[in-house]
Amino acid sequence: MAAGERVPSPTDKALTIVEELYNFRDHYIESHGMENAGNKETDVQNKMNESLAQLEEVKGDIKNKAQYHLLRGKILNITSKYNQEAEESLSKAVKLDPRLVEAWNHLGECYWKKEDISAAKNCFTGALNHLKNKVSLRNLSMVLRQLSGSPREKIKLIEESVERAKEAVHLDITDGTSWLILGNAYLCQFFTAGQNPKVLKQCMQAYLQAEKDSVTRGNPDLHFNRAVAYQYQEEFQKALDGYWTASQLDPSWSEATTKETELVHYLSDCQTLTESKGKIKAKKLDTFIKQLVDRDLPQYKTVQSTNLTGQHVSLSHCKLLELQPKVNEGKIIVGKVVCTVNSSNPVPFTCCIVDEDQTCMCVTIYNLSLGAGMKIGDLLAIPEPVFNQIKISHKGKEISFSGIRVDAPRLLVVNGRKLGINKEALPVLSVSNVSE
């Protein structure tokens, strides 16, 4: 040691032990590679045990017992699973020194893992009473979204969740974890408070900022939750890539793999059923086509309708092959439902329609109340349809089909009658908190 250099105190040594442990966990993927992600949990556990042993070696020399119990609790709280010893050590720390904000934060995380949401909220709120800090704010943001209440109360809680996450970001705009939690808060707000496109855009911008942080980039939650958003936007290639990345970062997390597999099956079924016209028998298909060209359907040739803004618009009939990418303003398509597409996820309701030229396309209908879906043989008219050509390449599998998206089912006309607003219901979304 150089002359004049300060000799590290026992507390300094203990702080270094804990810091090295958390750096090992947070930068594991960077140092070990994604191919070794499956070993992370075991390696972190081993490092935790090693750190505990090192802490015990200097325990007797640490005079501040509140600090010792905080450091011991932090070590035990390193994994994603609840640890009773961690809770006990952190509880001792806050009793010995109620001003230890870091101890309150880790104790709150213990309660969170224990699924004691109320106790976790009290810890984070208590910490903020001592000091405004990003960890308490972003953890409180998560907790608020988990509290129960009426639909109106839930909206207010999620709005508050967004505000707390914003505050955390403002305290440190370089912290990717805070950006991730803000993105998750926006995603929840989007699905519970009217699906404002601006909110979804803010969500994706927050995720983009989160990915700039090397630590957060290795968090499977980022890739999973963003994939959920991509799937809703029907950016299926990005969604599949996201689920795959999440599963690689945490091979023990079965939900990510399940979502990836289910989405591939769903998209494959969409392709197969559009290519086979719903696998409907030729005689029945001929009947449907005859009904479509029958003279009794003049009301679909030129239509006066009301759009979502309340404006009256004139719509002219358009064949499926004449559709242009994105919104086809001033057009209306008409087809017979030839099949529905089964999916483990009820959102969206998916069916296939054929028009008079026997062109078949997939229709995805969002925000449709349960049980309000179309049946085979129904005559479906879609004003100002949103057209998209789906192309997927995933793990050697190529999928391609034409799709039509409907976000406002109230404007659909089924068998000559408009569905109406009573057939609409916002989808329920579950944002992952596996490693937040």
TrEMBL record:
TPR repeats: 220-253
Keywords of this entry: TPR repeat
SUPFAM superfamilies (alphabetical): TPR-like
Residues making up the signal peptide according to the UniProt record: none
Record domain Tetratricopeptide repeat protein 5 OB fold: where: 315-422
InterPro entries recorded: TPR-like_helical_dom_sf, TPR_rpt, TTC5_OB, TTC5_OB_sf
GO terms under biological process: cell division
Designated name of the protein: Tetratricopeptide repeat protein 5-like
Gene: LOC106079249
